[in-house]
Amino acid sequence: MTARLQRTTLALLFLGLFGVPEATISCRSEEGEAVDWFTFYKLPKRQDKESRKTGLEYLYLDSTTRSWRRSKQLINTTKSVLGRTLEQLYEAYASKFPPIPEEGYDYPPTGRRNGQTGICVTFKYNQYEAIDSQLLVCNPKIYSCSIPSTFHQELVHMRKLCASSNSSEIPSRHLITLQSAQGQNFFHFAKSDSFLDDIFAAWMAQRLKTHLLAETWQRKRQELPSNCSLPYHVYNVKAIKISEHSYFSSYQDHAKWCISQKGTKNRWTCIGDLNRSPYQAFRSGGFICTQNQHIYQAFQRLVLYYENCN
Questions:
Q1: Which residues pair with 285 in a beta bridge?
Q2: What is the pLDDT of residues 146-164, one digit of tens each?
Q3: pLDDT, tens digit (0-9, with 9 covering 90-100), for 45-69
């Protein structure tokens, strides 16, 4: 995903609850119903001339379903899961929300060519201080801010980030457990730009105690090879299978996710904003991980093949 949209999606709900009744804002399904979480996979635009794909089609899964379904909506419409969810913020605030206040919700044209993933989780306010600390480590680029003074004492780091205030107290990495509104547990891995290593191999795989299959953008001469040098390995996914006759390569995919290798005891799925690339070690970012079996099975079925270690 583009950085602006990706950060917006991951940070959506704890920003959205400020100043409005808590019950009115949550992740929303395509039918407009409140859900505990949802994840989507925006498919890449097909390169062949015969294909009618626009680069706006997507797969969708939420807390009320068991597997991917291909959406009848396009992701740039207000009836998509992102549109339905973000529309709550447009309606609640006179100043509106990204990407452009005057135009309302849209999907950036630059995001059409490659595949992307995103996740939305509904959190209660008692999780916000923990999220506030993670934001300090991730240090996202802030597009727009509005934090009522009521929350300034509790959300110290978010206020500083909005003011573009530098901090010398940023840890190199931090892991927390978050709980969704309906009690689903999520791990959140956050790294700063001072953690100069591959987040997948050096930290996540070892902490989750599982071999990982990692799907990230495989740009030529900018990818890291599969890594088997540590107790828990990381293998690069090379191709994604949408159906029996439809697949695409990692080179067409700007998604960033990983799952436990099939057959391992710990079945994790993680979605985030960092590639497996030497240059990404110098970037801050993170991943949110879950052991939800429906999410795991949905992503596991997408793996067509992956690269073993040399």
A1: 191
A2: 777 777 778 888 888 888 7
A3: 875 554 567 899 999 999 999 999 9
Taken in order 171, 281, 290, 107, the sign of the CA dihedral is positive
Q: Which amino acid is at 264?
A: T
Can you name the residues that pair with 306 across neighbouring β-strands? 237
Active site residues: 254
Joined tokens for residue 270? 């993680």
- Tell me phi and psi for residue 102, to 5 degrees: -70, -25
Angle at 189 between CA 135 and CA 296, to 5 degrees: 125
3-state helix, strand, coil in the chain (%, to 5): 25, 25, 50
What local confidence, expressed as pLDDT, does residue 102 receive? 53
Q: Which residues contact 245 (CB under 8 A, 6 or more apart)?
A: none
What gap in Å lies between CA 310 and CA 292, rounded to an integer? Answer: 32
| Cβ 97 vs Cβ 144: under 8 Å | yes
Both structure tokens of 104: 């309302």
Give the integer Cα–Cα distance in Å for 280 and 198: 8
Residues contacting 250, CB < 8 A, separation 6+: 215, 216, 217, 218, 236, 237, 238, 239, 240
Q: What are phi and psi of 26, to 5 degrees?
A: -165, 170
CA atoms within 13 A on the CB side of 222: 12
Q: Are strands 116-121 and 37-42 parallel, antiparallel or unpaired?
A: antiparallel
Q: Which residues of 160-170 are buried (b: 16+ CB within 10 A; e: fewer)?
A: ebeeeeeeeeb
How far is 161 from 309, CA to CA, in rounded Å?
40
- Written in H, E and C, the secondary structure of 151-175 is HCCCCHHHHHHHCCCCCCCCCCEEE
Instruction: Find, among 162, 146, 140, 149, the residue nearest to 15 by Cα.
Output: 146
Tokens 């409005």 identify what position? 20
